[in-house]
Structure formats: structure tokens, C-alpha cells
Amino acid sequence: MPPQPHAFMRPGNIGGLVVKNRLIRAATSETMATASGEATDELVRLYSDLARGGAGLIITGHIYVEPRGQYEPRQLGLDRDERVAPLARVTDAVHRHGGRIFAELSHAGSQSLIPEIVPLAPSIVPNAIFARPPVEMTKADIGDVIAGFADAAARAQRAGFDGVHLHSGNGYLLSQFNSPFANRRDDHWGGDPQRRARFILEVYRAMRRATGVDFPVTARLGLADAVDNAAVGNWERMQVSRGWELIFSAPRGAGINPVLKHARYIGGSSS
Ligand SMILES: Cc1cc2nc3c(=O)[nH]c(=O)nc-3n(C[C@H](O)[C@H](O)[C@H](O)COP(=O)(O)O)c2cc1C
Description:
By secondary structure, the chain is of the alpha/beta class. It has a single domain, classed as TIM Barrel. The protein is 31% helix and 16% strand. It contains six helices and ten strands; from the N terminus they run βββαβαβββαβααβαβ. The strands form three sheets. Strands 3-4-5-8-9-10 form a six-stranded parallel beta sheet. Strands 1-2 form a two-stranded antiparallel sheet. A two-stranded parallel ribbon has the order 6-7. Bound molecules: flavin mononucleotide. Residues 26-29, 61-62, 104, 167, 169-170, 220, 262, 271 line the site of flavin mononucleotide (FMN). Flavin mononucleotide binds next to strand 4.
């Protein structure tokens, strides 16, 4: 009998999407966009090479969904319709080599490094890594950011991405909402694990409405992002875990498939 390929080289499915193997390139920020956030030839070459090298699925570096969510210079944006055509060159290049590609959608929240941006956050808690003081998001801000994720997901779909990946790790806005450290609200959006989990669920629901029922949506989930492990007690761990449990047990169609689970990210130049 001929040798069988290793399990990770066999095809796999994410929902209805077939991926030729289980070799997944984890999201890694490229900082190869133009100064205004559009895809470049350099970026097309990078993703073409990764697909040619055999990756079944590539997750892009984090892409900001609205201008206030930008993390760093030369990061990709999906905040405007003009982004679609240049990004379609990236997805075409990957598909030509039989690969699949998901757009990682993100909002930096209090972690933005762009000096001109007044960082948004669930509460006025200085960023755990950079100590930048944010402003507390109003209800209008929350609605705008949710709409930003939905619009960006629809643009990703139009640009030919095979799915979208929500960046709810590494201390960015989605993970800030889920964290009892960063989210000190006591309203619809904070106060207990259920209310802290609401933001990502509402983002998910809005994206689902914008992309239809079959479009794959996955997520990176952080547990104690950017918080020194020594400072994380069992109570806090339990609170975050409870939030994620609520997300996974949400009614059919409202939950998220975590293909990559990132339990811990501490310090350094997070991305
Ligand atoms: C330079 C660099 C850029 C990264 N950019 C992103 C990113 O854009 N989005 C993301 O979710 N993770 C990002 N990460 C985190 C990686 O996906 C990964 O989780 C991390 O390198 C740890 O991998 P490991 O658990 O295999 O050691 C980045 C990591 C590095 C080193």
C-alpha cells in the first residue's frame, strides 16, 4: 500500500469551504500596505509565495475595519470601498496556487500606535502594553464600530476572500470588551461575562447579516491578553472563560468557530 499523507496534509473543511490541507498560516501583520492602507505589489508577492509554498489556508495580518481602529503605519485597511480592487489582486494570487485566504478583521481600540488617533476603548483604562489613555466608547461609537466590522466583512467577500477571521486576541478592542481588566462598564456592554461577551456577538451577527449564512467566520480568542500572567487570578480567568463559553453556546448561527485559540499573549510588540 502506498504511504498515506500525514493527516495535516489531507483536505479539511471549514463549514462548506474545502481547504486542500490543514497547514494554516497564522495571522502575521505584514506592514506592506501603502501609507493610506491599500494593498501593494509587495503584499501580492508575499501571499502568492505563501500559497505557492503549500499553505492550505492563509490568514492575513490584522486589517483595520474603520479609521480609528488602525494599529500601526502601513497596515492594511478594509474601511473603504476603494480597498476592494487592490485586495482582489492578493486573493487572485492565492487562488491561482490552490490556496484559500481569510481576512483578519480587527480594531486596535486602546492599542493604536497612530499618534493622530484618539484611541477608543470600552472604559478609560490605559492600554496594558503601551499605557496610552483611551476615551470611553459612547453608544454611538459602539454602533459605528459594529457597522464597521460588518461593512469590512462585506468588502472582504467582494475582494474574493474565502472567509473572515475576527481578531479577538492580543489585547485589541474585541478582546478589551471581553476582559474584566479593560472593560469596567456597567451597562448593556459590560458588568458581567454575559454583557462583556455581547460586543463580539453583535459584531458577529452584523457580519453574518452582511455576508450571508455560508461565509466562513472564525476567530482568535484571547484569555489574558497583554496582562502579566502573575497578575491574572483564577477569578479573572474564570470570568473571561465564562464569556467565551457564552459565545460558543449562543443560539445556532450566533456562535463562532474558533479555529485558532490563543490563550496568552504577554508584552512585546504585539500585533
Ligand atoms: C511579527 C508578528 C506579527 C504578528 N501579527 C499578528 C496579527 O496581525 N494578527 C494576529 O492575530 N496575530 C499576530 N501575531 C501573532 C502570531 O499569529 C502568533 O500567534 C504568535 O507569533 C505566536 O505563535 P506561536 O503560538 O506559534 O508561538 C504576530 C506575531 C508576530 C511575531
